[in-house]
Design a protein that fits this description.
single chain, NE0471 N-terminal domain-like, 2 helices, mainly beta, 84 residues, three-stranded antiparallel sheet
Length: 84
């Protein structure tokens, strides 16, 4: 099972995620947020309150979360895969 073990906030909505298999991914979350419960994450200070939940995914204090499997497989023009 995929789990995030480390988060680094690079800038505004850009996170570098390290997974339990050693893979790292740089993901721009801006295209993934902005509606419903995720609208609060558009506030850069609030976005920076991201943490790792018990299942190895990402979560914010308002209950917004992202599954580690989705994030590991997510690919966009703003995403880069980094070999560790």
């Amino acid at each position: 099972m995929n789990k995030i073990i480390e988060i680094n906030l690079i800038s505004d909505f850009l996170l570098l995620l390290k997974f339990n298999n050693g893979e790292s991914k740089l993901i721009n979350f801006e295209p993934l947020i902005g509606k419903g419960i995720s609208a609060q994450l558009l506030d850069k200070d609030y976005f920076s309150k991201v943490s790792i939940d018990n299942g190895g995914g990402l979560e914010w204090p308002n209950g917004m979360d992202f599954c580690p499997n989705f994030l590991k497989d997510y690919v966009s023009n703003n995403e880069a895969k980094i070999e560790s």
